[in-house]
Design goal:
- The chain is mainly α.
- It has two domains: 92 residues, no CATH class; 137 residues, no CATH class.
- Helices cover 71% and strands 0% of the residues.
- The longest helix is centred in the C-terminal third of the chain and has 26 residues.
Length: 255
């Protein structure tokens, strides 16, 4: 099962490369078929095998020899690894599809946000519907309607919290972060309140630490814009993976 999930993740990662390139440009992710941006040569199926094709082609287009960015296999590998980690966390459970979907959009949004400092509505807004349907299905399958109510409340809480932060300090983050917060809040709160608390707090700790390192290394100044979306998603991953245990340990230490 782990091998199957890994292969699924690699294939999804290959598609996410298309999503990350085309969606910000307003292009279809279905048509036309993938082609080399240098010579326009259509990429054949045998040349589109995740990771392996990049290695066999030695990171160059077979037609014109233009270099193929290492970002492509990195996205595929990252998605494969994330899918395996999600499977190890949830197993063959009703809520597994929701978190596999969350991992997939996290990879695509991270690439886009790093490149363009944007979190496109074309990915974020439909994800509300997808995540809602998947969590409702999970609640129906398990009978845990309390978890669904907690997820809805968590999504609303994190959305409102980010909205208030943007309202108070617009230069700190964008509305894309606010919209993403609702999805992450729902996925975190489905796991538990501790996961929500750790996931939300970790985003600011990790993002702040990264910004501080850049300032110390003189790679950025106090006014430099740093995409916050990737840190939101990394914090959410920490909350989903170990948030309940971290929060429980924190309460034990304090009490």
């Amino acid at each position: 099962m782990i091998a199957l999930v890994a292969v699924l993740g690699l294939c999804v990662g290959s598609f996410l490369n298309v999503v990350a390139w085309r969606v910000p440009r307003g292009e279809s992710v279905v048509r036309p078929p993938s082609a080399c941006p240098g010579c326009g040569r259509q990429i054949r199926a045998v040349e589109n095998v995740p990771v392996l094709s990049w290695l066999v082609l030695r990171a160059r287009c077979r037609g014109c020899g233009e270099r193929i960015s290492a970002v492509y296999p990195a996205v595929e590998l990252a998605t494969g690894v994330l899918f395996v980690l999600v499977f190890l966390r949830f197993g063959l459970a009703w809520d597994l599809p929701a978190y596999l979907y969350g991992a997939a959009i996290a990879v695509a949004l991270t690439v886009i946000d790093i490149r363009l400092h944007r979190l496109p509505d074309a990915i974020v807004l439909p994800s509300y519907v997808v995540v809602a349907v998947l969590l409702v299905t999970a609640a129906a399958g398990t009978g845990d309607w309390g978890a669904l109510a907690r997820a809805a409340a968590g999504g609303a809480i994190l959305f409102v919290a980010y909205f208030l932060m943007v309202f108070a300090y617009p230069a700190g983050m964008g509305l894309g972060d606010v919209k993403l917060a609702g999805i992450l809040g729902a996925l975190l709160a489905w796991v538990g309140w501790g996961a929500l608390a750790v996931g939300a707090f970790s985003a600011f700790v990790l993002g702040g630490a990264f910004a501080l390192v850049l300032v110390v290394l003189r790679r950025a100044g106090r006014g430099s814009g740093i995409p916050f979306g990737p840190w939101m998603m990394l914090g959410a991953a920490l909350g989903i993976g170990a948030g309940e245990q971290i929060f429980s340990a924190y309460l034990d230490l304090m009490l």
